[in-house]
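For reference, the entry.
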Amino acid sequence: MGDSGTAIDGAVRDWGTLRERYCARMQRGAALAKDKVVAPDDVVALLEAVIEPGDRLCIEGNNQKHADFLAECLAEVSPERVHDLHIIQSNIALAPHLDVFERGIAERLDFCYSGPQGLRLSRLVKEGRLKVGAIHTYLELYGRYFCDLTPNVSFIAADAADHEGNLYTGPNTEDTPAIVEATAFKSGILIAQVNRIVDRVPRVDVPGDWVSFVVEAPRPYYIEPIFTRDPAAITEVQILMAMMVIRGIYEKYGVARLNHGIGFDTAAIELILPTYAADLGLRGKICKYMSVNPCPTLIPAIESGFVEGIHCAGSELGMENYVSERSDVFFTGRDGSMRSNRIFCQIAGHYSDLFIGSTLQIDLEGNSSTATLSRITGFGGAPNFGSESRARRHGSESWLMAGREAHRGNGMPRGRKLVVQIVESFREGLSSTFVERLDAWKLQESFGLPLPPVMVYGDDLTHIVTEEGIANLLLCDGPEEREQAIRGVAGYTEVGMARDPEMVRRLRAKGAVSYPEDLGVDKRLATRDLLAARSIKDLVRWSGGLYDPPARFRNW
């Protein structure tokens, strides 16, 4: 039988309720639209017409582009008409994302990352005005869109739309495919905020028949250059750590496929590839394929022939022309602009040979977290990138070498993904990175979370790099050696000062703790002279003028 009329236990079930609700919503919204296009002044009324109390609602708001105009309009709807919403979105970055909780429009939140809104978020939780379902990783939340958290209504952002609703996302596709597919193919309402409406889009990224309504926003969507790191701010300590990473990890394991973090520590590594790593004869042997955003600090490594391929989760402001002119390296469309995709980038990074990133705290088991006592921040993509890929089946030399170190001939031969945390022993404000117990435990108690919010679990971590040296946890036998290896690179922190010198000496002899002299790293070379580019202006020169940095990064 079709959409209606099937009898279950004597009751007749209607199998088309979602479709019927979709049609009713579309009919109400159509009164405010011309074809699919809605005027900006009518958007609040549109939202009050198509959103129903208790709906699950997704607002595209990831690391970079945001459906900010639609988010602002949602915060203006009447709580009498729209209330009890369940917000399911990856990033809580803008004030309107939390205004809806203060105004009683939404009550429950499932998310991945909150960033600067973390303090306000924690206050709303304490006041009982916001209930947190869970803090997810990106892939975890996207997965739930297709399981138990499918959106009833979604807001997305795109560069352009035509009059039939076909969308062009340009280089910042990012989360859009996951949100669109989950919504459009489960009878949900999809509303797109676009920068401009054109007769013909340069590339169809979202077919028009998946889109319910289109709004030409009064201003371009909000986007930030959050992956631009000025080489002028890179310190000699970071250069020393970068040298140790190249000699102690990249060269040793022959790491060719990897995911780089986006901080200054990994930017330092990228900027000494054309100098330090090239002098070691490592061109063509390491850092060939990367899963990372198009960070400007990668330009010298690309131009000097180190990096051959990059898949990106999103784009970066100012890199558009450079990426377009380097289509052998980046994934680009027929129109010349980059095609990013956060899910595919996460998958590529998960199955690569190495993840390297930074954190705020590490405990004596190697568990790490960016959670602090007063904030709920979340982790973004780091937990997926920074976890052992147990489903991997294909071999590579670095993966197999790490597996041999981990298993040492015991049981079934297995490979091992390298998961590296690179940190200085003290953070800003002289807070110790190394702690006996993570703040995450207190955060769990304060906010009633089911688990302490750990970013990378200790049993996934293989190496810790500090200004003092490298702890190779694969070579540690048992928790006591593991603890002492961590203490052995924890510098002058309380954790580091409590090391057992004799055990650290034995760990150093077996390679579980290595200092610069053990790795053949000459600390006298750790100066800014080693950087291939020492300023944003140098990066522009390396790009042949293709990189066009935002005004805030120009001082010339």
Notes: The domain at 233-284+342-531 is CATH 3.40.1080 (Glutaconate Coenzyme A-transferase). Residues 390 and 527 are 39 Å apart (CA to CA). The mean pLDDT is 94. Residues 236-253 form the longest helix (18 residues).
